Amino acid sequence: MARILTVFGATGAQGGSLVSYVLSHPGLSSRYSIRGVTRDPSKAAASALQEKGVEVVQADADDPPSVQKAVTGSYAVFSMTNFWEKASAAAEISQGKGIAEASVAAGVKLLIWSSLPDVAKMSEGRLTSVHHFDSKATVEAYIRTLPITSAFFMPACYMQNMQTVFRPQVASNGELEFSMSAKSDTLLPLIDISDTGKYLAPILLEPEKYHHRTFTAATAFYSLQQIVETWSQVTGRIVTFVPRPASSVSAGMTPEMVKVQNESAGLIRDYQYYGPTGLKDLEWTLAQIKEPLTTWKEFVKKNEPWF
């Protein structure tokens, strides 16, 4: 009988990618049946999962009884939360800890937490406002104290973000510009988030082997100059990298928002997102992956037209 893999955020980017991957992977689909967790089982994305044979259940991370019910009977749980829904570190920490505690209470054998680096610790207290990273790191630290086999998925900057928040803008002179508060040789790790399942497959196949291990989930580190050169090469439109002053402020931003923006840029500029061991950690992770990962060039080609 197949073991139940319960996926939180099953209709979202990470969870949805994992569900699709498991369903298409012979080794995993024969081992696991999928239970997808969503707050609204009536929405179209949830119905689409049901049509693929996924058991869809309703739960809200702010409602402990519903979370407990969702994980009951599960062998493995993929847990993730969305900081930006409430923009509250306290809320995300409560949600993440709640799912972990429910998993332990239900006798779940494997818990995979979608985490991020502890920026305050990494920067030795210099950067204290990157709350959307630190809250996930706090949950990870807590999970490591619990009596459950656990592993950690740490995604890089989504390539999909280049289609939205980081998309090149048309300057006043008509040229396309990609701007960040960093130098052109700054390295940024990128992941096509639709590759999520490729990173998690080793953990799901051999949970004990990867107990307490962190998967640094990126295809590669790319310099900001390499990113614009790839855009230019693939699309035929010249994209130029333009360093943005750290003090730049967009209309409507509060002082706290400015601080978060500047410190997030500082994380990339001064700590390369993952910190001093990032390159080495990625090398280890890539050695565990059995399938090709989507490169930045492949992603740009796949998602044309851009401009």
What does this molecule look like?
By secondary structure, the protein is of the alpha/beta class. It has helices at 13-24, 26-29, 44-51, 64-71, 89-105, 119-122, 131-143, 196-205, 224-235, 255-271, 278-288, 296-302, and strands at residues 3-8, 32-38, 55-58, 76-79, 110-114, 149-155, 157-158, 169-170, 176-180, 187-191, 214-217, 220-223, 239-243. The strands form three sheets. A seven-stranded parallel sheet has the order 3-2-1-4-5-6-11, sandwiched between helices. The chain has a three-stranded mixed sheet with strand order 7-10-12. Helix 5 links the parallel strand 4 (76-79) and strand 5 (110-114). The longest helix is centred in the first third of the chain and has 17 residues, at 89-105. The chain is globular. It starts with a strand and ends in a 5-residue tail after the last helix.
